Amino acid sequence: MTVPMEYRQASRDFDAFLVDARDTAMLQTTNQAYTMIEAVLTVFRRRLSVADALAFAAVLPPVLRAIFVSGWDIAEPVRPFAERDVLTREVQAFRGDHNVSPETAIADVAAALGRHVDPAAFARVLDRLPPAAREFWRA
After folding, report:
1. Are 36 and 109 in contact (CB under 8 A)?
2. Contacting residues for 100 by C-beta, under 8 A, at least 6 apart
3. Which InterPro entries match (predicted)?
4. C-alpha–C-alpha distance, residues 5 and 22, integer Å
5. Is the Cβ–Cβ distance between 33 and 25 less than 8 Å?
6. CATH domain 16-137 topology
7. Mutual orientation of helices 105-114 and 10-25 as an angle, nearest 10°?
8. Which residues contact residue 76 at a Cβ distance below 8 angstroms, ignoring those fewer than 6 apart?
9. What is the tens place of the pLDDT at every residue in 111-131?
10. pLDDT, tens digit, for every residue of 7-34?
11. Pairwise CA distance, residues 15 & 69, whole Å
12. Strands (DSSP E) found in 33-98
C-alpha cells in the first residue's frame, strides 16, 4: 500500500490552513493563528463525548486531527455548549497572554476550516452531532 496523499502533504496542507486562518482573522503571524486554532478546537472538543470527538477528528486533515486530540484529558467532564460570546471568551482565555484571538475567532476558524475539509464528510459528521455543535461551526 502506498502512503496516503493526505499524509504525504500534511505539512504543506497545514501551512496553507495556517495562512488561511491568519488572513481570515487578520492576525499578524501564523504563530498567532496557531494559538487561535488550537483554542477553538479545544473549546469545541470540551463539549463533545469521546465518541463524537473522535468522529469529528476523523474528518479533519491529519495535522488538525493531531492538534484536536493533543493534550486531551478524556476524564474531564463534558461541558455544555453556550452562547457564542461565552465560547469566544473561553477561546480568548486559552494561553492567556499569548493569545490575540479576535472576537470573530470561532467564525474565522470555521470559515478557514470549511475551505480545507471535505465539505460532504464535514456536513455528515456535524449532522450526527448535537445541534449546538453545528451552530459552533457556522462561519
Report:
1. yes
2. 27, 32, 35, 36
3. DUF2267 (IPR018727), DUF2267_sf (IPR038282)
4. 25
5. yes
6. Globin-like (1.10.490)
7. 140
8. 46
9. 999 999 999 999 999 999 999
10. 889 999 999 999 999 999 999 999 999 9
11. 19
12. none
Give this prediction's pTM.
0.95
Q: Which three cell numbers stand for residue 65?
A: 486531527
Cell 498567532 belongs to: 32
Q: How far is Cα 116 from Cα 110, in angstroms, rounded to an integer?
A: 10
Torsion of CA 39, 90, 48, 84, to 10 degrees: -110
| Domain ranges across the chain | 16-137
Cα dihedral angle (110, 112, 117, 122), rounded to 10 degrees? 20
Q: How far apart are CA 102 and CA 104, in angstroms?
A: 5
